[in-house]
Amino acid sequence: MNNIRRFWSSSGFSSQFVRLGYRNYTHNYSSINNNNNNNSVSSSFLIHGIHVFQCPDAIGILAKLSDCIASKGGNILAADVFVPQNKRLFYSRTDFVFDHVKWPRLQMEEDFLKISKTFNAVRSILRVPAIDPKYRIAVLASNQDHCLIDSLHGWQDGRLPVDITCVISNHDRGPESEVIRFLERHGVPYHYLKTTAENKREGEILKLVQNTDFLVLASEFLRSYGKDIINIHHCLLPSFKGGNPSKQAFDAGVKLIGATSHFVTEGLDAGPIIEQMVERVSHRDDLQSFVQKSENLEKQCLSMAIRSYCELRVLPYEEKNTVVF
What we know:
Oligomer: single chain
Largest sheet: 7 strands, mixed
Strand order of the largest sheet: 10-9-8-11-12-13-14
Shape: globular
CATH class of the largest domain: Alpha Beta
Order of helices and strands: EEEEHEEHEEHEHEHEEHEEHEE
Distance between the termini: 15 Å
Radius of gyration: 22 Å
Mean pLDDT: 85
Number of domains: 3
Number of helices: 7
Structural class: alpha/beta
């Protein structure tokens, strides 16, 4: 890694990569004390905000962002900055808490917009999870259930900060299947659309997902969708193509397995990577434990990718890369 850590100057940060603060902001805010003036802010007034910023690199960007939050009584809990070497690009993600009565949501948008105009930002996104609606997603599932079921349970128990609008599949699951019974209990529609090589049913799929924010588990690129699509695949590719790749890898004595979650693009399984996970296997694993480990990795990797996306941790970087804070 060529990341270089530098420190504050009078003009702010101009670093390759800087990470400040702490990550336990999801817990209770009992109080935030300022030792300089002995002020304390009651937890009842504080809610969590996230802001991501992308613009041409310049002097004083982080100082302006920090001042914007501090001048409204907000407190920064974590700040991540990335400036790629010799690229003159600036990326940042800031977690902060604020009093939404003293700093209303619309005013906050206007304040960050002013900074965007000052630095000619190409991306300035603000999210307040306690106020903003959850991301609406549709799940496009194949005949494999493990990632679909894990995503449904993650939505139900709150691990995934999304609302699932529907599940679409080219596999006709029976009325007694775990997936169908779960969806019926929670009022989520299931749409079976039989597809062929000649008819991908793209027009019908687009109608079903037109009110979503992004899609999950869709392996096919939907040219007319116009929003992000996240998919998962095992990391046995490209060595083990075709049917039953786990069996092929097991028979070949593979010692390291993994999963990759990525954005879907026109190239098959070639989109920018969001998350990757690996695990060792050995001669002690039989085929059942081998497959179970592989499926567990896929579930964990997809869940992490969805959460990272919803928490504004994923930013596009160049054509085939991502910044993941």
